Amino acid sequence: MNKILLLEDDPSLAKGLIKYLKLNNYNIDWAKNGDEAMELTYKNRYSLYLFDINVPAISGIDLLKLLRDSDDLTPTIIISAMVDIDSITKGFIAGADDYIKKPFDPDELLIRIKSKTKMLQDTISFRDYRVNLTDKRVYYKEEELYLGRLQQEIFTILIRNYPNPVIYDDLILLLDRQNENALRVNIAKLKKVLDINIKNIRGVGYKII
Question: Scanning 12, 73, 101, 202, which has its CA 20 to 30 A from the CA of 167?
Fold first, then answer.
């Protein structure tokens, strides 16, 4: 089930959206202010963010800027009563993928959500790298990179778990020769080919940084 983080300080609107989206097979975490939303992004991975702009503590736009500066590329839809072009422009500059004006038709919002979450299922990204999950191809700035099956699978699982580490056992299961030496060799190859930093978290596993 796709998991969505909703940042909305209007309890009536939030509860209505949660009920509607749950009926359409979405799991919702609700934050009433920017601080709560930020904390939830540390603890959970989401398919989509739905952020209102005018909320207490940290505004939806400022929160989105902070997340994008931390390389959090989770698709984000801004929902706001602010319809002036300046507010809309600020939302997109901050990194929003879409903007819907209040009041809105829930069915229209659902269409937009489905579009964004489908994209996430088909493709995952890390900075300028992108993995197409349908055809298993890896791209850097739209140029295709040619990785072996194993390196592609390791890279994919590292991106899926970013910013959290992937435990040793999950990585070793990908290998034909399932031992830590073989894993270290393949991680070293991946780092060299992609010129990325993969950190060994002692006693845990590996994470991409």
Answer: 73
